[in-house]
Amino acid sequence: MSVLEAPRSAILTRSARFQVSRGMSTILGALVMLFIISAIFAPSSVSKGAVLGMLPFAAVLAIIGLGQTLVVQQGGIDLSVAGSVSLTVVFVTKLPDQKDNRLLYAVAVAFIVSLIAGLLNGILVSRLGINPIVATLGMSSLLYAVMMIVSLGISHRTTVLLNNISSNLTLGIPNSIYFAIGAVIVTTLFLKMSVAGRRFEGIGANARAGRTAGLAVKRHQTSAYILAQLLYCLGGVLLGGILTQPTAYQGDSLVLPSVATVVLGGTSLLGGRGFPAASAVAAIFLSQLDQFVLSLKVPYAVRTLVTAMALLVGIALYSVNWGLVKKKILSALREKKVGEISHG
Q: Are 248 and 30 in contact (CB under 8 A)?
């Protein structure tokens, strides 16, 4: 048994579909502790205005994190997040040219391009066997190239309609939060309640067993990249509305956090069962963590380092078999003690 063996098989044997996962309980506890620490050391980061300002960006990260979760469940990773989100933001700001009646056309173009990008990612990874990192990084570069052709790297103002849809409050809560909740519910119902979702998780846990059972493994793997791109697009559309004049490179800062939400939510990087709701809570945790660090007035490089450290902590919590580590340490100590006695 390996020290880095993920508790994947043990997780998959549990019968309760909506059982609170270890990842959910861990990230909820961490989120509560973070808010307490923020209230003590940086009270401004938990004020009503600060929280309302943070939640829309947390919603965007949650939606993007859901897409990354689906890809990771199939044992892959998607680095095309940056290019996909950036291109979507350009589409929904450049194409309408601040005219509300052209917004629907721009959103449709964004989703069609995302659908094509997801299909190409899936073909490259599942059909041609190209490494996911190489394939999706190349796709991100291609999407950036399209973005430069469309916008020349110049930022544009969003439409009033999209800004209202994304940023206005309903019952005191930013509208983008409702989009994130809807995405979480749909993704969770798909994975936990549908036959296709259970096959999807089973193939992610053991693709070879899936092939033996006659399941369409490559089709499910391709669908993960397609669904992920559609979710990235939804996040990009909302982001294009939240920011009145987003940059053409708005997705650059979302690659690492999207992976961190998956890991902190408890989904194994080896694939298998996923936890969409926990990934969404992890997005709130990371957004609040970023706001807390920002309130301390530290450099941007430190903020990025904090996110990377959170990712490493998540990997250590869920991927390392700490029981086996403990046994190996105790065994080494016993052998050392026996050796000292024999030489003494």
A: no
| Domain assignment of residue 2, yes or no | no
User: Coil, strand or helix: which one is 9?
Assistant: helix
Nearest Cα residue to 159 out of 86, 107, 235: 107
Nearest to 238 by CA among 158, 147, 136: 158
Buried b / exposed e over 161-192, threshold 16 CB at 10 Å, is bbbebbbeeeeeebbbbebbeebbeebbebbb
Give the residues across from 173 on adjacent strands: 170
Q: For residue 3, is it within any domain? A: no
Identify the residue with better confidence: 132 or 323.
Answer: 132
Determine, yes or no, domain membership for 1: no
- Pairwise CA distance, residues 282 & 275, whole Å: 11
Domain enclosing residue 320, as ranges:
8-343
Per DSSP, which regions of 60-199 are E strands? 169-170, 173-174
Greater confidence (56 vs 298) lies with 56
Show the tokens assigned to 90. Answer: 């350009």
Q: Measuring CA to CA, which residue among 144, 138, 134, 135 is closest to residue 113?
A: 144
For residue 207, give the CATH number of its domain. Answer: 1.10.3470
CB atoms within 10 A of CB 46: 20
The residue type of 22 is R
Confidence label for 319 from pLDDT (cuts 50, 70 and 90)? low
Mean pLDDT of all residues belonging to the chain? 87
Residue 177 lies in a domain: yes
The structural domain count of the chain equals 1
pLDDT tens string 275-318: 999 999 999 999 999 898 888 887 777 777 877 777 777 667 66
